[in-house]
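Bug: token stream looks shifted between consecutive jobs. Job 1:
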Amino acid sequence: MTATAPSWLTEVAYAHRGLHDVAGTVPENSLPAFEAAIAAGYGIELDVHLTSDGRVVVTHDDDLARVTGRTVSVAASTLAALAGLRLGGTDEGIPTLDDVLDLVAGRVPVMVEIKNVRRQAGPLEAAVAGAVRAVDGPVCVASFNPRTVGWFAKHHPTVVRGQTASSFAGVDAPYLARRVLASMAANRWTRPHFVSYELSALPNRWCDRWRAAGGALVTWTVRTGDDLTRARTVADTHIFEHVEP
């Protein structure tokens, strides 16, 4: 049985890490990228990690070398220690999840991708739950980690939750583990409101069964016009980057 997704989830397309540009003048996962998405009427997809002092910050990688030029671990740093870092040579810093949710103020849907690569769920999920439950507006969470999705199902079942998945081709993991994750076998107990699946691995029988049972399907990441055309045929909405719907 699937949990029922709210209608707002599939009414918009989502800007991947905000509406950032190829040149890097508007960095990914920055407040200007999120403001640009809001102005264009798109939903926002973003990524979060937890600092050593328990603050949720918006960035895709734990190692900040790619986005700041500094080899710094989010998990090993306090929020104050990250405050001086700048994104891609701009004046923009790394925002907290609270900063972003305050900026959005319910104007567009926000999809919070929880980057938990650990075996257990808890501190990051609890901190994210505290932030999103304080928001009066359309916000959902998603994760590749079924334990994260299951944590929300158990502790905060009213928070809209999604299972992110892919074919996991090329991932250095045992075949059985990849198969279990690709087929989303844990959906039976995590009961996500939606599935977010890699476009290059669609269509597939698992997602076909999911949609046939009434489940909402998001696909990622749309980067070309051809991607956009295909995404519209295989999913209910999509996450895009550098190609606007």
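Job 2, same session, no restart:
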Amino acid sequence: MNRPLASLLIVGIPLALSACGKSEATVVKATPEAVKEVVQQETKEAVATAPVESVKADEVLKTDQPQQAAPAPTTAPLSPFAVTDSLSGLGDFGSGEPIERQDLPERGVIAFKVAKDQSTFAPMEHWEQYNFPFQSKRWGRYSVRISYSLKSSTLGVQFKFGDLRLKKTLVSTSGATKRLYIGDIYIPQGGDQFMAFYTPNGVAWSTFVLEEVALVPTQEGEEVKPTEDGSLQLLAKDATTWSENMRYEPKPEKNCLGFWTEKEDFAEWEFTVDKAGKYNVTVHQGCGAGGGSEVAIQLGEQALTFKVQDTGGFQKWAPVNVGELEIKEPGTYRLAVKPQSKNGGAIMDVQKIILAPVS
């Protein structure tokens, strides 16, 4: 979705959540052993799913098993944190691509550096393949970002994660490095994962250089808009979780942000307001480990802090009034919840945050 850069005035704050890091991106290297386990299976279906530019009609991979038709490509929406220049209407390289926000957090980003001498790269007869086996600590939604340079005019590429295929036609960067978001994926559970990136044959390190593939946490649900009475309900399901362990728990009996065991993990909501005013902030939190962690709520340069209450259980919710924030003009904002201290094994669980207009 396109949003004016000038309107993105809100940055997140530290908040704490319970289970019920450092602010640098995690860099993962693919090992030869892990690649060997997946390449055989991946190569049987890679031709069927490779970019159309890389496979001719008579170039069919011969295997003992019949090839299945590639599933229709899934079109993923633009990441909610990606905005387009409101003055020109064009993104980077004048292409209409979304511009990455300048204050993009690094917490929870999973980055894969690509080098020519790494086992990540697996050239095939009709295409070139980059394999990325990895482990994730948590489930959640991520935007797929690539950093690359391209000397040719265009190049068709494809990204694969499970049954999901993301197809993209890259345009020339004239040798410069460019970052580009190609769509979103959802990791359904923590543990061993595998993803792959495909290009036509014979382009690697000649006309095309893939420098990095990164998974960037993105918004789980919808953009928040005011209700009829002007209040804003920031639900757990609509947060972006900039985290390595904390996550949205979708089970009906939970429906909250949980596993908040690391102080560096934080949550962020984006919302739009139509009129200026002061808002009373109430956090609906639960904690069964004694409470006492200090948490901050941040809206731009404004900050409120509160201490987590022990409610007798992590899914026993108690509303905690933390004070007032002022929005000085209509627009799109970000509110973040970040822990300032951690008392015990987990900070808290969060069901929702309510911003109610002060009459």
